[in-house]
């Protein structure tokens, strides 16, 4: 009977038995074994399987198989846990991306709705304003009357900006004249004759001047509020 070394009652697997047999030259015609003295020295602290009682050898071998099975089960559990964690991570990333996209879509929808609401309000405001020709001509106008005309001609959301400019330029005097430059009227057009594009009565009709002022502010600055922003930065427009 071949004596197979098992260190400290370590479990001997079939592979280990074959490997040790090859080392000690059990296989016929194998390579000469290593020096016996060296081998014996290396195996000095081992217990030989042959030295274990026959009844316990089966127990040792069974324990070996059990340990191997446990090790394989542990490895399989670890692999399954890692796979589950990776799947959970990927799903969390996917969920986060979906939530982010949903939030962005909601914000964009709200922005569009707000823009449409604002545009509708501007259209309603424009449709409610009166044209200069709808006012009857008078010989003269008080500041209150000129302001009342402006409120009916200027979109409601732009009136305050328009009023700020007129107040600074002429204090609502439609006949105001700058003796140095020749600027004239509510908006101090330079020269005043520019306002003839809005009507021949530009010198005496504040409605005509308001019409021209609105056209000028919209054309150059986009709106009276755009003109007012420029005026605040430069003290002219």
UniProtKB/TrEMBL annotation:
Keywords: Signal. Residues 161-226 form the Transglycosylase SLT domain. It comes from the Bacteria. Residues 76-131 are annotated as: Disordered. InterPro entries: Lysozyme-like_dom_sf (IPR023346), Transglycosylase_SLT_dom_1 (IPR008258). It holds the Pfam family SLT. Coiled coil: none annotated. Residues 79-129 have a biased composition (Basic and acidic residues). Residues 1-22 form the signal peptide. This is Transglycosylase SLT domain-containing protein.
